[in-house]
């Protein structure tokens, strides 16, 4: 089994179900995305740059769907939050599957891919 698969299957519920669902939405929405395991986390690269990673931060009770260039998307998509005062990363925080607005998330994925495709760097701040 691949390390990224191990990561998902070693998560406790409800995090495992949420992450597996988000993973399937990402992979089905953006066929060009590449799933990788970096920094002990599942990363989704688009245009050869990191776009999203999934995590459960210590001391929290939600799945953090983190967009690397989220700062460029937060005005258009207010569901993106700045947790822990991160400079560039913004995230969607999911406590349950019902917290995810599928259509809005798909639109967010498409826009994130477009923004990343136009960007010269993955991390710019």
How would the blueprint of this fold be written?
Layout (H helix, E strand, L loop, with lengths): L2 H7 L5 H15 L4 E5 L2 E6 L2 E7 L7 E5 L22 E5 L7 H17 L7
Antiparallel strand pairs: 1-2, 2-3, 3-4, 4-5
InterPro entries: YdhG-like (IPR014922)
Protein name: DUF1801 domain-containing protein
Organism: Mariniflexile gromovii
Quick recap:
The chain is of the alpha+beta class and 125 residues long. Helices cover 31% and strands 22% of the residues.
Major sheet description = 5 strands, antiparallel
**Beta-strand content:** 15-25%
Q: What structural category characterises the helix and strand content?
A: alpha+beta
Question: What sequence of helices (H) and strands (E) makes up the elements?
Answer: HHEEEEEH
Distance linking N and C termini: 36 Å
Shape: globular
Strand elements, count:
5
Instruction: Indicate the percent of residues in helices.
Output: 25-40%
Mean pLDDT comes to 92
Q: How many distinct domains?
A: 1
* Rg, Cα atoms, Å: 13 Å
The total count of helices amounts to: 3
Organism: Mariniflexile gromovii
InterPro entries: YdhG-like
Protein name: DUF1801 domain-containing protein
Pfam families: DUF1801
Describe the protein's architecture and organization:
By secondary structure, the protein is α+β, with helices and mostly antiparallel strands. The protein has a single domain (3-118), classed as Aspartate Aminotransferase, domain 1, CATH 3.90.1150. Helices cover 31% and strands 22% of the residues. The protein contains three helices and five strands, in the order H-H-E-E-E-E-E-H. Strands 1-2-3-4-5 form a five-stranded antiparallel beta sheet. Strand 1 (34-38) and strand 2 form a beta hairpin. The model has no long low-confidence stretch (mean pLDDT 92).
């Amino acid at each position: 089994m691949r390390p990224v698969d191990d990561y998902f299957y070693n998560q406790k519920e409800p995090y495992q179900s949420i992450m597996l669902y988000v993973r399937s939405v990402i992979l089905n929405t953006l066929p060009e995305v590449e799933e990788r395991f970096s920094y002990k986390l599942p990363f989704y690269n688009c245009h050869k740059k990191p776009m999203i990673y999934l995590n459960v931060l210590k001391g929290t009770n939600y799945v953090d769907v983190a967009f690397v260039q989220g700062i460029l998307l937060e005005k258009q998509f207010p569901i993106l939050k700045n947790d822990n005062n991160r400079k560039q990363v913004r995230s969607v925080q999911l406590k349950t599957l019902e917290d995810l607005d599928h259509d809005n998330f798909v639109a967010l994925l498409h826009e994130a891919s477009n923004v990343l495709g136009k960007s010269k760097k993955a991390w710019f701040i």
